[in-house]
Design goal:
Cytochrome Bc1 Complex, Chain D, domain 2; mainly alpha; 4% strand; heme binding; 2 domains; metal ion binding; two-stranded antiparallel sheet; electron transfer activity; 10 helices; two-stranded antiparallel ribbon; 4 strands
Length: 311
């Protein structure tokens, strides 16, 4: 008769005894059960408070062309989107748009990371807001219209024709960044889901004097003492900057943009500091808007400023 084997000692497939005590087995099973219980508890907690991180969309965080290219659609549509992204980054240099730009700014000068930045004038989701009523134009406009208006305001240039290769390409790129965003038409103004929130008025009136001190300390290294820009930052006033019809000439809008965008990669300005810098930057001369559309933007109520720090 074969030799009996007790429950604590079982032969392994090649004949060696495998020693697994009931006590050890109980400990292992208890540990596995604890891990499963903790995972289930965390999942329930995660769902309850709603903090589960969404899957990362590589397209929206890509920092180089090769990474973004993986998600371009095939064929002519993908080529148009690729061209649109290039134009956003090289608006003032690309042959298709260079003649339409009247300064050294590109779209990405304000729409950071080619519009991928989630807060600084983000393009993500914008296409889902158009067509929309524009209080500035006092009419319903398309996404192409909105892009064209940036050429005559922020880029102090000429308006591209609707349906032109450049406008179609940029609109295709913005629409690509908006894939999956529910359409939400706003009867009051065109606002995408990631639109920039305008800051509340600060406790102290914006001060040009305080703003100058802050600008010299935090901004001049990249944008120049005279605001003319450098290799590290675009001009922020003067003949080579945006004209006085651009949205950022409004102190609240400029302050709100500074709060989420500057200093680049180290956004630590307070609301008050953002307003003070905006007041200083916008106290300087810049080109006049040459268009025939209204020069006032509903978002751009201009705050009064003081040249001296409030007491």
């Amino acid at each position: 008769m074969p030799e009996s084997v007790d429950s604590d000692t079982q032969p392994d497939p090649i004949g060696h005894p495998s020693i697994v005590s009931n006590e050890c087995l109980s400990i292992v099973l208890a540990a596995v059960g604890l891990v499963i219980s903790l995972a289930a508890a965390w999942t329930a907690f995660d769902n309850e408070i709603g903090v589960r991180s969404p899957p990362i969309d590589v397209r929206l965080v890509a920092t180089d062309a090769s990474a973004a290219e993986k998600d371009y659609p095939p064929g002519q549509l993908g080529e148009a989107i690729r061209l649109g992204e290039t134009l956003v980054n090289e608006t003032n240099k690309h042959p298709l748009t260079k003649s339409l730009v009247g300064n050294s700014l590109s779209c990405t000068s304000c729409h950071l990371d080619a519009g991928r930045h989630p807060e600084a004038a983000s393009f993500i989701g914008v296409a889902a807001a158009y067509p929309a009523y524009s209080p500035r134009e006092k009419s319903v406009i398309t996404l192409e219209d909105r892009i064209a208006n940036c050429f005559i305001r922020s880029q102090n240039g000429s308006r591209p024709k609707n349906g032109s290769e450049a406008l179609v390409a940029i609109a295709a790129y913005i629409t690509w960044l908006s894939e999956g965003t529910p359409i939400r038409m706003n009867p009051a103004k065109p606002l995408g889901p990631n639109h920039m929130v305008i800051l509340a008025e600060p406790k102290q009136r914006p001060s040009i004097e305080r703003g100058q001190t802050l600008y010299e300390d935090r901004c001049a290294f990249c944008h120049g003492d005279n605001g003319s820009g450098s290799d590290d930052g675009p001009p922020v006033w003067g003949d080579d900057s945006f004209n006085d019809g651009a949205g950022l000439t409004g102190i609240p809008k400029m302050a709100s943009w500074l709060k989420v965008a500057m200093p680049l990669d180290d956004t630590d300005l307070t609301d008050q500091e953002s307003f003070d810098i905006a007041a200083y930057v916008n106290s300087h001369d810049r080109p006049k808007f040459r268009g025939t559309q209204p020069n006032n933007d509903a978002n751009n109520t201009r705050n009064p400023t003081t040249n001296e720090a409030d007491k």
